[in-house]
Hints:
Elements: H1 5-46, H2 52-123
Helix pairs in contact: 1-2
Pfam family, one: SIKE
Organism: Ailuropoda melanoleuca
Protein name: Suppressor of IKBKE 1
Amino acid sequence: xxxxxxxxxxxxxxxxxxxxxxxxxxxxxxxxxxxxxxxxxxxxxxxxxxxxxxxxxxxxxxxxxxxxxxxxxxxxxxxxxxxxxxxxxxxxxxxxxxxxxxxxxxxxxxxxxxxxxxxxxxxx
Length: 124
């Protein structure tokens, strides 16, 4: 499996967008729950309260939706953490490879200079 920094960054952006969508959906659920509670309170005040079974059913439904959203956010958080770890690993590996390349380039330069010195001494 080949992972590039660009792919990881793209995945991180996608996950961030999904987290924002989940956050918006969670806010919507909270708003729906608040609206339901206001509706129930208003009906109680007016003396036309919903039957307890219907209230419980609606509350259970909202709680189930909230739990689904929490699980989805947790999955996205886990994926985002894995991507961040992989990105950090790739950045470290990149740094180490650059250092090795630098050492190799310096070694080649020294060899080249030595061979030039040797060649110029042989000519003299």
